[in-house]
Amino acid sequence: MKANYGFGLAAIVLAILFPIYWLAPLTMGLDNAVTAMRDEFMTLDGWDALFAIIGVLEIAVYLGLRRYFRDQINGSFPANMLLVMAILVGLFHCTLFIDISVYLGLSLPSGDSFIFMMIAVLVVLLGLYTFALLALSIAMLVKFDEISVVLKTFTIGAMIAAMFQLSIVFAMVNIVLFPGLMLLLAIHFFRGDSAVEVV
């Protein structure tokens, strides 16, 4: 596998932008969560642009890693899980179209019931993504002897991240852990790892 600086750069930028976007909600109390969500859906601003950029970068990184598993080590299941993760990320970020619709003056359902429905949809998508990430990490463990030390470290980190996400209580830790995982993938893409490393 040749070095792919495009995917590597995408992973680095994602590692920087991800915590910037997701740490902001932590500054507000849980009592304001519904109000904040309603305000988010009813406005179109720079945060929405950042949200879209994060989605595009994350999809690009997963598709880049998918190509590695598909073409280099015949890892069809990990490749399929990465495709599923990319699709789920795309669907998650499609909620941006609600903001765009409001900005264009199109009528949308209003009230807390609509907000709670959207929250439920997002939670379901996040749950499916978490199970896909867990399946990916398990599949990578099967290929453990065929991947580099960098991807071995990523595999362990991805499994920890999935377990944190499933615990709900420790899910917020992933705001810090996720950028670390992306930096590992950046190293993988820059190095162009294609063979087993002996350590």
From TrEMBL:
Record keywords: Membrane, Transmembrane, Transmembrane helix
Keyword Transmembrane: yes
Bilayer-crossing regions: 7-24, 44-65, 77-102, 114-142, 154-187
Domain of life: Bacteria
Protein's recorded name: DUF4386 domain-containing protein
Lineage, uppermost ranks: Bacteria, Pseudomonadati, Pseudomonadota, Gammaproteobacteria, Alteromonadales
